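Slide 14.
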Amino acid sequence: MKRKHLYSFITIGLALILLNACAKYNSAESGSSEPVETVSATDLINQADALYRRREDLANACESIVLLKRARAADSGNFEASWKLVQADYSLGKFSPDAKESDKALADGINAARAAIRLNPNKPDGHFWLGANLGGEAEKSPFTKGIPAVGEIRD
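Slide 15: predicted structure.
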């Protein structure tokens, strides 16, 4: 019985830590007036890449997403920032223990992938990560999201 309570406590503790670590990720969407970016998109992408390499700690994945969103805001036509944002969203969506955060990350990834594909439809990165995010959603909700997305995933 004690072990069951210990596991519950640890699970709740980890969930709270992840929610706190991802607060920047969730609050990045809520601001209506974004400040002008002073760091170049290339520098932000490089910082995000360094964090993404350590994505097994989901706080790094969340921070990577924040930096990539900043890079996209600084240079809306930057294809690299767009597809890497999709990749980071997929990682957070796939591995987050928080279902709401996971669903939001996958949905954001799908939207970002479609934007990346519009920027450069001839590069495979946007298409691949769109399929991955759609597949992640389909895996979580096979009947409501999976079946309707089969055609788009195949494409």
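Speaker note: The radius of gyration is 17 Å.
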